[in-house]
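Sequence design from tokenized structure. All designs in this work follow the same two-part layout: the structure record, then the generated sequence. An example of the structure record is given first.
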């Protein structure tokens, strides 16, 4: 073990740049660096060329209309996303190719060809139609990682009914708020899902949620785990019964390029989650292009994005991008350490996966478990690796390179967001020399920059705000029912044509981008975005709590861990039992991913004279750092008290 760690240190200390091998480069779809100059010179022509990766029912008239901050792509074009993902491949004789190798956590397997997916999507689309779903109606989807999840999304896309997928790890109230904001008519869920040997009670959560969802007319439940479930006559149906008698033909709805494809909710800095709106034409062109060229997709690849479809990574790079490219993918339902810590590697070996795309948090967990787990399996089929979701520390990068890629596979560190829809900063694996920890350069046609407070570009080595200065096809178009928030959050800091990503970044002397994490009150826990506000609201929702302030503390494994400072109401005692109760309360309200790592009870919170909680100081306390400036505090003495309390933390994981 010590010898192995020394090997990692050696790789790191070399300050090495990792060039693509001659073999990889010669076989890569893109291996000529002039693509960057070509795209920069005429981005519109570049995207017009890429638009040929999509089949249009009616070809577009104009590439882009940029009326900052409002954008439209491929104006006048008509297409259907499900047609692009399925029908055209079947029509071209590619129906027998595997779309997904699925594996359930308990071990069942299903192999679904493009034809299989196509037929079931048509049946479900007809089933949804029979329930009254039509173009423009919103459908909520709350499922685990089962084949019915991409099938449900595509059935909605086929009908032109925007889907709103809610991550299966969210709790009832998070589901309820998302359904209500979207005013979804139908909910598609499952009786349960498997996770680490346990059943996640999806239907039970859904029941609790929809008690307060007046828009829901029908609930369609996939039978997955079995057992008895109370069904409401007229409202509830089993998925399997709904599709059983349906014809396997269903014409795809012709959609305008700018018609809504889906809404996906993500955490913002304040208030309720934001409904990120993606439309059809630009999104399909953006995800198909980036997926093909960043993952260098060849016909014989077996591609595995190990994210959950409930997040944008799954939408763009498990469903729409890969299927548009007629790629073969892997879907796995459960936890990476169930029944043992080599589960992913056993699947890579069994399916001969060639490409693996996962999050730095997962890689840090693999590191902690040790190389003996990947070593048990033949990973020689792998030829390319990727990461997404948070900055990857160079040590984790090098570990991934050495033990998973066995020093042969390029690693694409891809930066993007729910809002951007597609990857924007990334290596191109046949071109880019890699530096561990850097997402390298903007994708061709993308113009990124780093600004200081006043909108001036900062020089190499200095940190600043990451901005994007030109629209890209898959970018979000607005926040659902809240266009003002779209303008305010993303386009008001500098000027309406400059998109503020909310991430800090710096550039090195070679022009490589290094992402530095969020600059707002959004935390990044294990690659999941959670706002401090959401957790605070959940805490004060508990009757014992008077006030709460939440900060993120850096954590070697999950990136950031949630620390909550809590003031209890008079007469309440902050002890271990209450700490546990509050942690569970947050898990119940939002989901386990938001459960605070530590709760610190305090008599008061440090506040400015205008009553604003000084999170900066709390962050210093949480990190054990020397405290910053306290002169603006109304109640300076409280900081010392909090610091003393912090040393007797309660309720840690
Ligand atoms: C972070 C996930 C560093 C970033 C696709 C961003 C990253 C947020 C990277 C978006 C990366 C994502 N390096 N940070 N390669 N990829 N991030 O919306 O803070 O869930 O703003 O989209 O994740 O998270 P979201």
């Amino acid at each position: 073990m010590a010898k192995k760690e020394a090997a990692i240190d050696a790789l790191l200390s070399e300050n090495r740049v990792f060039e693509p091998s001659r073999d990889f480069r010669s076989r890569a779809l893109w291996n000529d660096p002039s693509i960057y100059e070509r795209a920069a010179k005429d981005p519109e022509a570049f995207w017009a060329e890429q638009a040929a990766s999509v089949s249009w029912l009616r070809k577009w008239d104009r590439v882009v209309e940029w009326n900052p901050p409002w954008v439209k792509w491929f104006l006048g074009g008509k297409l259907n996303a499900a047609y692009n993902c399925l029908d055209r491949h079947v029509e071209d004789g590619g129906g027998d190719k595997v779309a997904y190798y699925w594996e359930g956590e308990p071990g069942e397997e299903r192999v679904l060809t493009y034809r299989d997916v196509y037929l079931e999507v048509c049946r479900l689309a007809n089933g949804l139609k029979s329930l009254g779903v039509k173009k423009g109606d919103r459908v909520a989807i709350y499922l685990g990682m089962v084949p019915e999840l991409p099938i449900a999304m595509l059935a909605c896309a086929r009908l032109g009914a925007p889907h709103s997928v809610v991550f299966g790890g969210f709790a009832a109230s998070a589901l309820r708020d998302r359904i209500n904001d979207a005013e979804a008519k139908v909910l598609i869920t499952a009786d349960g899902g498997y996770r680490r040997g346990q059943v996640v009670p999806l239907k039970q959560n859904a029941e609790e949620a929809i008690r307060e969802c007046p828009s829901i007319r029908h609930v369609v439940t996939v039978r997955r785990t079995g057992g008895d479930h109370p069904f409401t006559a007229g409202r509830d149906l089993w998925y399997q019964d709904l599709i059983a008698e349906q014809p396997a033909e269903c014409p795809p709805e012709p959609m305008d390029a700018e018609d809504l494809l889906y809404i996906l909710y993500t955490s913002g800095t304040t208030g309720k989650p934001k409904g990120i709106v993606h439309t059809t034409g630009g999104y399909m062109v953006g995800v198909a292009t980036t997926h093909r060229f960043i993952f260098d997709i060849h016909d014989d690849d077996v591609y595995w994005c190990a994210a959950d479809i409930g997040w944008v990574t799954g939408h763009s790079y498990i469903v729409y991008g890969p299927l548009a490219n007629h790629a073969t993918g892997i879907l796995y339902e459960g936890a990476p350490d169930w029944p043992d810590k080599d589960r992913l590697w056993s699947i890579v070996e069994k399916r001969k996966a060639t490409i693996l795309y996962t999050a730095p948090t997962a890689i840090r967990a693999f590191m902690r478990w040790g190389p003996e787990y990947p070593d048990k399996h033949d990973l020689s089929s792998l030829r390319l690796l990727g990461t997404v979701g948070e900055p990857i520390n160079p040590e984790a990068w090098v570990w991934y390179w050495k033990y998973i890629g066995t020093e042969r596979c390029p690693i694409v560190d891809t930066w993007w967001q729910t809002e951007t829809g597609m990857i924007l900063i990334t290596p191109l694996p046949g071109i880019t020399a890699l530096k561990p920890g850097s997402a390298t350069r903007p994708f061709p046609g993308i113009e990124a920059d780093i600004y200081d407070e006043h909108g001036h570009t900062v020089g190499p080595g200095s940190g600043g705000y990451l901005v994007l200065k030109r629209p890209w096809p898959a970018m979000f178009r607005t926040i659902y029912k809240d266009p003002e928030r779209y303008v305010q959050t993303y386009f008001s800091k500098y000027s309406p044509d400059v998109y503020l990503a909310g991430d800090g970044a710096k550039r090195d002397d070679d022009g490589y981008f290094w992402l530095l994490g969020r600059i707002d009150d959004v935390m990044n826990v294990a690659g999941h975005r959670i706002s401090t506000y959401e957790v605070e609201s959940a805490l004060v929702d508990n009757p014992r709590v008077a006030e709460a302030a939440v900060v993120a503390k850096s954590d070697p494994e999950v990136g950031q861990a949630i620390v909550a400072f809590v003031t209890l109401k008079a007469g309440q005692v902050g002890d271990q039992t209450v700490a546990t109760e509050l942690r569970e309360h947050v898990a119940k309200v939002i989901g386990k991913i938001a459960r605070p790592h530590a709760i610190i009870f305090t008599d008061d919170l440090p506040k400015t004279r205008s009553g604003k909680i000084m999170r900066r100081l709390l962050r210093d306390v949480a990190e054990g750092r020397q405290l910053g400036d306290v002169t603006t505090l109304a109640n300076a003495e409280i900081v010392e008290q909090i610091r003393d309390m912090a040393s007797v933390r309660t309720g840690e994981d």
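Residues 266, 311-313, 388-391, 413-418, 439, 501-503, 515, 518, 524, 529 surround WTA (CB under 6 Å). We note this feature because it recurs in several other targets discussed in the main text.
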